[in-house]
From TrEMBL:
PANTHER family tied to this protein: MAJOR FACILITATOR SUPERFAMILY (MFS) PROFILE DOMAIN-CONTAINING PROTEIN, PLASTIDIC GLUCOSE TRANSPORTER 4
Domain of life: Eukaryota
Molecular function as annotated in GO: carbohydrate:proton symporter activity
Cellular component terms (Gene Ontology): membrane
UniProt subcellular location: Membrane
Membrane topology label: Multi-pass membrane protein
Transmembrane segments annotated in the record for this chain: 48-66, 86-110, 122-140, 152-170, 182-204, 210-233, 300-325, 345-362, 369-389, 418-441, 453-474, 480-501
Recorded family membership: Belongs to the major facilitator superfamily. Sugar transporter (TC 2.A.1.1) family.
Entry keyword set: Membrane, Transmembrane, Transmembrane helix, Transport
Segments forming domain Major facilitator superfamily (MFS) profile: 53-505
Entry-linked InterPro entries: MFS_dom, MFS_sugar_transport-like, MFS_Sugar_Transporters, MFS_trans_sf, Sugar/inositol_transpt, Sugar_transporter_CS
Name recorded for this polypeptide: Major facilitator superfamily (MFS) profile domain-containing protein
Primary location group: membrane
Length: 545
């Protein structure tokens, strides 16, 4: 007698296994299957080691934050402005600071080959070495041309390091923690900005040329740390695999993702996906071949999603508050150098905290909701900033055509403008900052990732060039009316994100291929699935919305 008959079950009416109203998970549900079969721990010894490796990658973001925010601090330093005869706003401020972006644009042909040919680690090293060279030129410069040449090399090096760093962090991390750790990468931009602001504030006490040369030399700090530690890091398992080092790739996954177990569900999942989806003779093997970026509709769509977040992150209005905050503060009535340095430092600290908070939300809330919240919120804040600044201008405040500031009498409007600066920083940081590096990496397939990130760097620097040349002149010529442009831009960008950008959470990098292959990637990406076990012990969809 069967077990069913012994237990009094009428086998004639018992449902067949195939009749269960659930289905076995496969395809893009493999991630959830592995989560159920082998729940990962965030605090194993192996995972802590990955966090340590990621910190070295984070230094690429830290040095980017330092280099990127340094010019804002220098343009608030009266000795620097006197030495090179520049103002906080105007065309010269744009030229001096724009060399950073020009260097990044020129680096485009070299980013992909450097990272694909020698690996993610060597890409970080090349970028760090160029930054050190640029720092030496800047620190020893006695003419504006030499200083700008150093800025050019900094931008060139940062373009390579800022592409290699997030790729390395995202590719070495466990799929279950890729979102949070990858989002944390760009939050470290503010650690560099805080160090730059703090050093600039302290250096003001020394006075003279040392007050700006000191903070210029500090640019070599984090690039030097990368050079010291980079070869102690494991290489990206994906790069190892496609470069015919499959055993090394599996050993890396086994040690750090499988906790030493080669039969781990996470090791099997990723190795299977590498075998099935990674192209062993793809365009990443040929430095001149960019066809993978434009091969089909899916590739173009991926690249457009990458570029959208890269560009939108630069055009939210944050550039004015990053590079020309001194001019914004002057237009709001805050003229004293010490006062400006204190505001800059406090603003960087609160943005850092909100960026970290946002990084912990990327896997809970999702990428799309965070981006929509931030761009919509920034639109509202710039509207408030426009109203407050216009009221302050009516009382006589603003910037004269020669770049000098004039005081207004409406203190309430001045304080409201300052409040909007801090509110903007918090809203921008919680959603946009964590995703500026994570999302562009996620939406690209491995074959197109390095060259796609080169285009991302190009987009960031090209958008930055507009920021460098347009906004300082705009702040000088039309003042607060500049904020109307940001209000409209953020509204348009929020609409584009809502319409066209898919969600990427809850899948491995390789599983995202299914999303972009779907007829409607946005709809496919936000379909919700709940995973469980049926009575036969299979991992299944128990509910689907």
């Amino acid at each position: 007698m069967s077990a069913e008959e012994k237990n009094g079950v009428d086998i004639s009416t018992a449902p067949e296994k195939e009749q269960v109203q659930t289905k076995v998970v496969k395809g893009n549900e493999a991630f959830a299957e592995a989560m159920t079969k082998e729940p990962p721990s965030a605090w194993t010894g192996a995972q802590i080691m990955i966090y340590s490796f990621s910190i070295i990658g984070f230094f690429c973001s830290t040095m980017n934050g330092y280099d990127g925010s340094l010019i804002n601090n220098l343009l608030q330093n009266q000795w620097f402005k006197e030495y090179y005869n520049v103002q906080s706003s105007g065309i010269w401020a744009g030229i001096v600071s724009s060399m950073y972006q020009i260097g990044g644009v020129v680096a485009l042909p070299f980013v992909g080959p450097a990272i694909d040919t020698w690996g993610r680690r060597v890409g970080m090293l090349i970028g760090a070495l160029l930054i050190i060279l640029g720092t030496i030129i800047q620190g020893t410069s006695h003419a504006a041309e030499a200083f700008m040449g150093g800025r050019f090399l900094l931008g060139f090096g940062v373009s390579i390091a800022a592409a290699a760093g997030p790729m390395y962090v995202v590719e070495i991390n466990h799929p279950a923690f890729r979102g949070v750790v990858g989002a944390m990468y760009n939050t470290l931009w503010f650690s560099g900005a805080i160090i730059a602001s703090g050093a600039a504030r302290g250096a003001l006490n020394t006075g003279g040329d040392y007050s700006w040369r000191l903070i210029t030399w500090l640019q070599a700090l984090f690039s030097g740390l990368i050079c010291l530690f980079v070869f102690f890091l494991p290489e990206s398992p994906r790069w190892l695999y496609v470069n015919n080092k499959k055993e090394a790739a599996k050993q890396m996954l086994t040690k750090y993702h499988g906790n030493g177990n080669p039969e781990s569900a996470w090791v099997s999942l990723q190795m299977h996906e590498y075998e099935e989806l990674l192209n062993m003779d793809g365009a990443d093997k040929r430095w001149w071949d960019y066809r993978a970026l434009f091969r089909n509709r899916s590739s173009v769509y991926r690249l457009c999603c990458n570029l959208a977040v890269s560009i939108f992150g630069q055009w939210a209005g944050n550039a004015v508050l990053s590079y020309f905050l001194g001019a914004v503060l002057e237009s709001a009535g805050y003229i004293n150098s010490i006062e400006q340095a204190n505001i800059t430092l406090i603003n960087s600290c609160q943005q850092f905290l909100f960026a970290i908070f946002g990084a912990f939300l990327v896997d809970r809330v999702g990428r799309r909701p965070l981006l929509l919240f931030s761009f919509t919120g920034c639109c509202v804040v710039w509207l408030g900033m426009t109203i407050a600044a216009s009221e302050f201008a009516k009382s006589g405040g603003g910037i004269n055509p020669d770049g000098t500031a004039r005081q207004g009498t409406n203190k309430a409007a001045s304080q409201a403008s300052l409040a909007m600066i801090f509110i903007f920083g918090s809203i921008y940081s919680v959603g946009i900052t964590p995703l500026q590096a994570l999302y562009p990496v996620e939406v690209l397939s491995f074959e197109m990732r390095a060259k796609g990130m080169a285009f991302s760097s190009l987009a960031v620097n090209a958008a930055g060039l507009l920021n460098q040349f347009a906004w300082p002149v705009s702040m000088q010529q039309i003042g607060w009316i500049t904020y109307v442009i940001f209000t409209v831009q953020d509204a348009v960008q929020a609409f584009i994100i809502w319409m066209y950008l898919p969600e990427t959470k809850g899948r491995t990098l390789e599983e995202l291929d299914e999303i972009f292959a779907a007829k409607n990637p946005v709809k496919a990406s936000i379909k919700k699935k709940e995973i469980g076990l049926n009575q036969y012990g299979d991992v299944v969809n128990v509910h689907e919305v």
